[in-house]
Amino acid sequence: MTHPGGTERHQLLATMHEVIKAVRLLKQDRPPTLAAVPVGTVGVLSEIRARETTGCHAKELAADNALDPSTISRAVAALVRTGLVARSADPADGRASTLHLTDQGRDVLDAAQAHYETRFAAALRDWSPQEITDFTAALQRFARDLIDQHTHAPELEAAR
Asked: What GO terms are given for molecular function (predicted)?
């Protein structure tokens, strides 16, 4: 049985594989100024910066980014070893620690974000502002729908 839109969905899946490949290549193609940043941890640095005013806990990073706690733990340990992140005792719970960017961590994150912005600008140089806006909206919707589908998967399975 053929599902309506099956060909389009198949093409989307193939395109998503290309997007994932492009992201992997982007992560690997780093200037020497980013050598101190362990591969795959720029997002973790960004999340820590975004949460610094309220205190950032590794457990929350894992949950909010759909990552296994052990994955976040290894990433944070690598960032602490390289001097980009510091741990401090959580004032509300002395057994827990909060994560904060060091000055070096802020500088490196700024450089990484500038690098990625330059790469994106180059990739999008032939795109109109409207194409970028439309693509962004479609990608946001797709991400939300995938996350919602995952969140509600147990309910959907129970209904079958």
From this structure: DNA binding; DNA-binding transcription factor activity
